[in-house]
């Protein structure tokens, strides 16, 4: 009984807070100037499981490149490289 109660107490404690890493624009860091709409695997990094674009506050992408990514995703969808809607993309 005592061991079981001990594990329940440990389970109810709040999880440890991890140190948040500073967000950075991966395009500026890598020196990428052009977002290729034909590279579907790279563009999937900016989409969630339903195929929606992830916001800047989650990816850390700068505004300039977020617009380029959005345009590239739209072009890839139009050419059927990426789906418009899906259940489980990843």
Explained architecture:
- The structure is a single chain.
- The protein is mostly helical.
- It has a single domain, classed as 30s Ribosomal Protein S18, CATH 4.10.640.
- It has five helices and no strands.
- The N and C termini lie far apart (42 Å).
- The relative contact order is 0.18.
Top keywords for this entry?
90 residues, mainly alpha, 30s Ribosomal Protein S18, flat
Which helices and strands occur, and which strands form pairs?
Elements lengths: L1 H11 L13 H5 L9 H4 L12 H4 L3 H16 L12
Largest sheet: none
Unreliable runs: none
Q: CATH superfamily, please? A: Ribosomal protein S18
Shape: flat
- When the domains are counted, the total is 1
CATH top level label = Few Secondary Structures
N- and C-termini, Cα separation: 42 Å
What amount of the residues lies in strands? under 5%
The Cα radius of gyration reads 19 Å
Give the strand tally.
Answer: 0
SSE arrangement, N to C: HHHHH
């Amino acid at each position: 009984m005592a061991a079981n109660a001990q594990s329940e107490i440990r389970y109810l404690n709040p999880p440890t807070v991890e140190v948040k890493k500073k967000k950075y624009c991966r395009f500026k860091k890598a020196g990428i100037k052009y977002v290729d709409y034909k590279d579907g695997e790279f563009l999937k990094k900016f989409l969630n499981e339903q195929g929606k674009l992830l916001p800047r506050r989650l990816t850390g992408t700068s505004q300039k490149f977020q617009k380029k990514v959005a345009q590239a995703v739209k072009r890839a969808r139009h050419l059927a490289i990426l789906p418009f809607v899906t259940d489980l993309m990843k």
